[in-house]
Specification:
mainly alpha; Arc Repressor Mutant, subunit A; 3 domains; 6 strands; elongated
């Protein structure tokens, strides 16, 4: 058991210390079988290479290698704080444990921030030690049973050597070092969560962040569904049903705090609905429907899948009503009230952001309905 623990930690250490280029040099120098079949370092798997080296060296050789192959840019994640090995950020390796320090820091975090620190640490462990910010928020909610935005707390866990910001500036994520996960998990199991956690006040900026996350999630699913719909229709009918419009997709990602912004967003969404392969779809059907993308799609479904869920088309028609039956596209029309009611809004004016989120969900529902129909055709 101890051998397996120590081997696992040594592998983690080698992966932290050395880039694939150095692992390749070390493996060749040790004349290990794994490295004989590769002529270039970029062909190796970093984890497998570290594993092969770890199995074939002892602690003395490990210290020698870390002194000869110094890390080019220092060690990430504050160095290395294992049960058997400790290394500074500059790469100085010692055969000692720092788990007592890590244990103390976990207890300090739990004492200072309680349930919130527990939620962050357990969520990261659940995500195998690394997660993007929004994925982390989702996992924290699963752990705690309530939403918590960790913006304030995450940077404060870094000086305790518990959590570090990683990735690129454009695509950052958060990481708990793999070598400390066992001791952190042990202390989290011993933590007594409060019976009634203190309610966390959501600030305006945190609410904005939550809205951006929700809209971003919806639009990501819309993009994927449009892509899947095209792939399936290409296989089944040898055509693409819809036209791509990157600018419109970019617009529907934006939030919607007032009527003017809603007007701009709904026009972009209407463009996505109307941009279908009209001529190609017309060639697939016998009937000649009235003009309009939704009429054409309805005729297509009536012929190809007469028992289809009518909400697929109704969702699209009601979205277009929100665009067409109000200022500034046309003068306000009472039909607009019917469309608002269809989406579950009876107050005038509605909460424009809530309405926008609901509209995006209904559009996604229609896309997913179309996908199910084409899949059922085989």
């Amino acid at each position: 058991m101890q051998y397996e623990e120590k081997l696992k930690e040594r592998i983690s250490l080698l992966t932290r210390f050395f880039w694939p280029e150095d692992l390749y040099k070390i493996g060749k120098e040790l004349d290990l079988n794994y490295f004989r079949k590769y002529t270039n370092y970029w062909e190796i798997n970093q984890y497998q290479a570290a594993t092969e080296i770890a199995k074939n060296i002892d602690d003395n050789k490990l210290i020698e290698l870390t002194r000869r192959f110094l890390p080019k840019y220092g060690l990430m994640l504050g160095g290395f704080h294992g049960k058997y090995y400790t290394a500074s950020e500059t790469g100085e390796l010692k055969l000692q444990s720092l788990w007592d320090l890590i244990r103390s820091n976990v207890l300090k975090a739990l004492d200072r921030w309680g349930d919130r620190a527990y939620g962050i640490l357990q969520a990261l462990i659940n995500k195998n030690g690394r997660a993007t910010y929004f994925d982390l928020i989702d996992e924290i909610e699963k752990v705690l049973g309530y939403e918590f935005i960790p913006s304030y707390l995450l940077p404060r866990l870094g000086p305790l050597n518990l959590v570090f910001k990683t990735g690129s500036n454009k695509y950052p994520d958060w990481t708990i070092p793999s070598e400390i996960i066992p001791v952190v998990q042990e202390e989290l199991r011993n933590f007594k969560r409060p019976a009634q956690p203190r309610l966390i006040r959501i600030t305006p900026s945190e609410r904005l962040l939550r809205l951006e996350r929700e809209i971003g999630f919806l639009v990501d699913n819309i993009v994927q569904s449009r892509r899947n719909l095209d792939l399936l229709s290409e296989r089944r009918f040898k055509i693409n049903l819809i036209k791509q419009s990157e600018m419109a997709i970019n617009d529907i990602r934006k939030l919607c705090s007032n009527e003017e912004e809603f007007n701009n967003r709904i026009m972009s969404l209407a463009l996505l609905i109307s941009e279908i392969q009209t001529e190609k779809i017309t060639n697939l059907i016998k009937s000649k429907p009235e003009s309009g993308s939704i009429n054409l799609m309805e005729a297509f479904l009536n012929e190809m899948a007469p028992d289809y869920d009518i909400s697929i088309i109704k969702n699209l028609r009601m979205i277009m009503t929100l665009r067409s039956k109000k200022y500034p596209i046309h003068r306000d029309d009472s039909v607009l009230l019917d469309a608002l009611s269809y989406f579950g809004f009876t107050n005038i004016p509605p909460d424009w952001q809530d309405l926008w989120g609901t509209v995006l969900q209904r559009y996604l529902d229609s896309l997913e309905g179309l996908i199910r129909i084409i899949v059922s055709m085989g």
